[in-house]
Amino acid sequence: xxCPFCGHVDSKVIDSRESPDGVxxxxxxxxxxxxxxxxxxxxxxxxxxxxxxxxxETFSAEKLARSVRIAxxxxxxxxxxxxxxxxxxxxxxHRLGRAEVESRIIGEMVIERLRSLDRVAFIRxxxxxxxxxxxxxFARELEALRDEAGQPSAPRNxxxxxxxxxxxxxxxxxxxxxxxxxxxxxxxxxxxGP
Length: 194
Prior knowledge:
With 194 residues, the chain is of the alpha+beta class.
């Protein structure tokens, strides 16, 4: 380490402390005796995300946090839960030790954490991320989620309680009186009901 005052190459470490950003070292120059501070920080290479269409872009923790926040909108979650989820995913990505990560892997990491955090947020995120092609695929995902939660689900061969082909009752409000023909029309009016 060169002395910033005289340029001498030798210095002695007087004090060394851990800091949130890395390691802080207090040094003394062997040439001029002046003291100076150096910081050691890990310089991580930017993580690249490989999109479905093959494009590459720099990983953005803010973009990840924004998409998780949208999925969790109006959900009763603890303060800091979303930030923790985002930081956990980012840390796991860096632990992979790869320069490029497919967006699919990031999405699955988020889905895995949302599944245990909030089931509605999980379905919201999964419906956008997995881009379900039809309602049956989406229904299977919901069924799997219901099975995981231990909620009883109807067996596949069980008939529904209310079949889909039963017509709905249109109006259950107050009963209407039948219309009477107006004076001079002379046409009979069909009266239905009691």
